Request: fold
Amino acid sequence: MAQKRASTAVGPEESCLQIGEVAERTGVTQRTLRFYEEKGLLKLPIRLEGGFRLYSEVDIQRVEQIKRLQKLLGFTLAEIKEMVDAEEVKLQLQAEYRPDAAISQKKTQLLRAIEVTERQHGLIRQKVDALREMQSKLEERLDTFHGWQVHLEEAQAKADGKAKTKAKA
Amino acid sequence: MAQKRASTAVGPEESCLQIGEVAERTGVTQRTLRFYEEKGLLKLPIRLEGGFRLYSEVDIQRVEQIKRLQKLLGFTLAEIKEMVDAEEVKLQLQAEYRPDAAISQKKTQLLRAIEVTERQHGLIRQKVDALREMQSKLEERLDTFHGWQVHLEEAQAKADGKAKTKAKA
DNA sequence: TCTAACCTTGACGTTGAGGTAAAACATCGC
DNA sequence: GCGATGTTTTACCTCAACGTCAAGGTTAGA
Reply:
């Protein structure tokens, strides 16, 4: 362990994790974190004077989100980027909600965000539908299998019975 | 169009589509079909004397299944292979159900098939759950957005009203 | 028989999503 | 100041899932 928490260098409330710890806690490699950054999936992290990246808990959550979207749901990193971008827009709108200059510009941004969100929603519904269909098919198949299993048990019992009778005789 | 349906060359009931037509109907390329074959996702098709591949409707269905699993649900071809292999086992068991020699062997196979199917089922449930969570989050977000939208409209109306009053004065 | 359209195998290229290795800098505890 | 770790950038490697020629064989139809 070479470094402790550099907890006073940047801001008062940031959690300030270095890349190694983020990697460990999220289960991805450091390379992957840099790669995501390069691809715009993670925003450029603040740096220590020496150039070391400093992450926050929010970043960790985002990484976990990315992994879920990718591994569980099969989205590509490009699609995921679109999603996190939309999220970014939301946060931005949320933060800048007070200083209400340029209302019509905000309206445009908002419309864009809504559009993206609705597309995502539709995409997900498609996936859910497909999954449900698969699921019911699998259940059907399992039923069939169990039926066969019973059938096989019976057949075997009969065969055994015959064998025993023969052995007795 | 250089060839017609070679409908009498192999069997009486097979549909006999050539690779080009299968590609067109499924929306994948010929290269992809050969690739799937190479990877064991499609069984080796029967061939015309000249070596041309001949597919059936069942093959088309399988290709469509593969594409769904892959694009919609994010399974890798390796995972998909496992699934279609399981399906193959099922068909095999189904076909060989009559000649009931070696019952215990069949039981083993059946157990294996059940195991795979149940794993798939669980996997899919996980995915559905994750997707549902995402979906409700998105709906929540859309609600927020629409609220903001209304808010912005009001703000703009107010601003416009002021402007008009000023212009009148 | 000849040709246009279709198919074959083979080999190399590409893109996405990282892995791995190297050389040099940073930080901490001593 | 030094050594042990931890990080940084650069650069090349890999693996999956195809794309893209290239060179040649096949088939139906005029």
Confidence is low (pLDDT under 50) at residues 1-13 of chain A. The CA atoms of residues 89 and 109 of chain A lie 8 Å apart. Residues 1-4, 6, 29, 31-32, 35, 39, 48-52, 70, 76-78 of chain A lie near DNA strand C (CB under 10 Å from a C1').
